[in-house]
Amino acid sequence: MAKRAYIKHITSYYPNNFEFNNPENRITSKIGVLRRPVALPNECASDLAVEAAKIMFAKYNVNKEDIDALVLCTETPDHIMPATSCIIHGRLGLKTNCMCLDYNHGCTGYIYGLSIAKALIESGQANNVLLLTADTLSKLIHPKDMRTKPLFGDAAAATLVASTYSRTEYLRGFQFGTNGVDFMKIIINYGMMRMKYASKEEAYREIEDQYGNVRTDAAVYMDGKGVVQFTQTVVPPMLNSILEKNMLCLDDIDNFIFHQANKFMLQTIQKACKIPDDGRYFNDCEDTGNTASATIPIAINKMQSLNIPLGRRALLMGFGVGLSWGGCLVDLTLMDPEE
């Protein structure tokens, strides 16, 4: 018997403010996003994360004193310093002997977070890890950039990774990859130390493409075509590698839960991975959009609410900014059911 980490609870939170994509628009039909939760001007990622955690504490009667580590994944922190996880720690009223850690990652972030939580627990450093994934990317997208704006929503998810003793691994098969050469394919240039501008006005100078989309160096830039090609290149080999190293095949997987980027990208990946269309592959970002590192736990919550069975072999995969990708196998049968 060994100490094992497992997912016990997941809860989600959206801002109470939505923007709607035009259902008659060709792009809307392609990406499959009809509405997106958008944070209000005074709402930050920490606010969304705190609400997601509070929902968990109340819904599942979680004792805050049991939280040994708080791990936050966000690309939109409250401040350059201090770490936003420390701010959340104070607002949640967690115990003082609690580790707090921020890490900056995007669409692969949830896989990284599960790996960190597993390492903390199975090395004996923690019994319960509160993993928070939260972003307000809408604040960093130019309102006239119609290539990017219709894709992204703001949201947070809280995952309680707990411990037990078992011969079985409940979080396993982790694999990661990085192509840092192509980091410019998804980027915000302005705001930190690398890019120097003569003035703030220069950073916010508007650049219009041939289709009328507008952005600035202070806003998200994404090479959409390049990102799709990237996912088609890296996701199928990683999926096959995880299956091979764990002596499994596609038929052995109960749920395929990938980063919910958009309908088109998920359909493209499903085809490239030769995953059958038999209900095990989840593709639904219609009412949330791409919420970065929160898409996978939000998808699990959606599956619970839709009464979609969650199995012992769920294959989770994330891919995006970095460029990065990662995947793992998770037993989701130990989660408390939706009430």
Rg (C-alpha, Å): 19 Å
The CATH architecture classification of the largest domain is: 3-Layer(aba) Sandwich
**Could you give the count of β-strands?**
15
List the uncertain runs.
Answer: none
Identify the strand order in the major beta sheet. 1-7-6-4-5
- The protein's oligomeric status is single chain
User: How many angstroms does the end-to-end distance come to?
Assistant: 31 Å
CATH fold descriptor of the largest domain: Peroxisomal Thiolase, Chain A, domain 1
GO biological process, one term: secondary metabolite biosynthetic process
EC number: 2.3.1.180
GO molecular function: 3-oxoacyl-[acyl-carrier-protein] synthase activity; beta-ketoacyl-acyl-carrier-protein synthase III activity
Protein name: 3-oxoacyl-[acyl-carrier-protein] synthase 3
Summarize the structure in words:
The chain is of the alpha+beta class. The chain has two domains: 2-166, Peroxisomal Thiolase, Chain A, domain 1 (3-Layer(aba) Sandwich); 171-182 and 221-330, Peroxisomal Thiolase, Chain A, domain 1 (3-Layer(aba) Sandwich). Helix content is 27%, strand content 24%. It has eight helices and 15 strands. It has helices at 26-31, 45-60, 84-92, 109-122, 200-203, 224-245, 263-273, 295-305, and strands spanning 2-13, 18-20, 35-37, 69-73, 99-103, 129-135, 155-166, 171-178, 186-187, 207-208, 214-215, 221-222, 255-258, 314-320, 324-330. The protein has a five-stranded mixed sheet with strand order 1-7-6-4-5, with helices on both faces. It has a four-stranded mixed sheet with strand order 8-15-14-13, with helices on both faces. A hairpin with a 3-residue loop joins β14 and β15 (324-330). α2 (45-60) packs parallel to α3 (84-92). The longest helix has 22 residues, at 224-245. The radius of gyration is 19 Å and the shape is globular. The two termini are 31 Å apart. The model has no long low-confidence stretch (mean pLDDT 94). Residues 243-331 form the Beta-ketoacyl-[acyl-carrier-protein] synthase III C-terminal domain. One of its GO terms (molecular function) is 3-oxoacyl-[acyl-carrier-protein] synthase activity. Pfam families: ACP_syn_III, ACP_syn_III_C. Its EC number is 2.3.1.180. This is 3-oxoacyl-[acyl-carrier-protein] synthase 3.
